[in-house]
Design a protein that fits this description.
This protein has nine helices and ten strands. The chain is α/β, with parallel strands linked by helices and 264 residues long. The chain has a single domain, classed as Rossmann fold, CATH 3.40.50.1360. The relative contact order is 0.17. Bound molecules: 2-amino-2-deoxy-6-O-phosphono-alpha-D-glucopyranose.
Length: 264
């Protein structure tokens, strides 16, 4: 795991945006894994700006979102498809048919999950997967106890996650308790994984993910198994880490090494 600790949430977004821009510059036909939630919003704003200023293009890219509420149609304002249209897709030059979000209104959701896995495989696999982090350590909607090799499937949300996400729903509005989510195995298959976490309310989950044991009790700890996982944190989210000075030291060494290699 590469652990990058930056002063503010804006710095985290800027770092993440640069990685996406570099990915698309190196490989314009990249397959990108995308996430919802409040954490990636600032990153998406930066990508929109970069696209409008023609610093980056999504015209040849494909995207796959991590998850979707089961039971919400795509045009429901709380659906993750709607979120992606509003916060990214409508404002960039991506081909609409090249954006995939699990189908929350599928008549046969089990078959829809299998189809989603097949679509990812047919696209050649995910090059760069963006992740947020649930306060309980979930990634996508892989809640604690999720199988570490799980694939796209229907998952029940924990009461804690339902409560955390209630802020997006109007009082009394129907809030789904089920989701379709890429599995942890699906996420681990991505060539590169970029997890962003900001704010003090993520500090405990960040500590469990990085310094805790590899365990289904903290699904994000599965990133410990990934060859190229980059975790980008602001100071507040990193605050509980015991070895924080060591992670800063490694990152300084990494940067110095990259500089040396670039100047050769
Ligand atoms: C949701 C999403 C996750 C997201 C998490 C954190 O439950 N399914 O993909 O990472 O919440 O959200 P936020 O970034 O709003 O804290």
């Amino acid at each position: 795991m590469q652990i990058v600790i930056l002063p503010t949430a804006d710095d985290v977004a800027a770092y993440g945006a640069q990685l996406f821009i570099r990915q698309l510059t190196d490989k314009p036909q990249s397959v990108l894994g995308l996430a919802t939630g409040s954490t990636p919003l600032a990153l998406y704003r930066l990508l929109i700006r970069a696209c409008q200023q023609q610093e980056v293009s999504f015209a040849n890219a494909k995207t796959f979102n991590l998850d979707e509420y089961l039971g919400l149609p795509a045009d429901h304002p709380q659906s993750y498809r709607y979120f992606m249209q509003q916060h990214l897709f409508n404002a960039i030059d991506i081909v609409p048919a090249n954006t995939a979000v699990p189908d929350g209104s599928a008549t046969d959701p089990v078959a829809a999950c299998q189809r989603y896995e097949q679509q990812i495989a047919d696209a050649g696999g995910i090059d760069l997967q963006l992740l947020g982090l649930g306060r309980n350590g979930h990634i996508g909607f892989n809640e604690p106890s999720s199988g570490l090799r799980s694939r796209t499937r229907i998952k029940t949300l924990t009461p804690a996650t339902i409560a955390d996400n209630a802020r997006f729903f109007a009082p009394g509005e129907y809030q789904p308790h089920l989701s379709i989510t890429m599995g942890i195995g699906t996420i681990l298959d991505a060539r590169k994984v970029l997890l962003l976490a900001t704010g003090a309310n993520k500090a405990a989950a960040v500590k469990a993910m990085i310094e805790g044991p590899l365990t289904a009790a903290c699904p994000a700890s599965a990133l410990q198994l990934h060859e190229q996982a980059i975790v980008v944190l602001d100071e507040a989210a990193a605050a509980d880490l015991s070895d924080i000075e060591f992670y800063r030291h490694i990152e300084r060494e990494n940067q110095a090494l990259l500089k040396r290699l670039a100047s050769q």
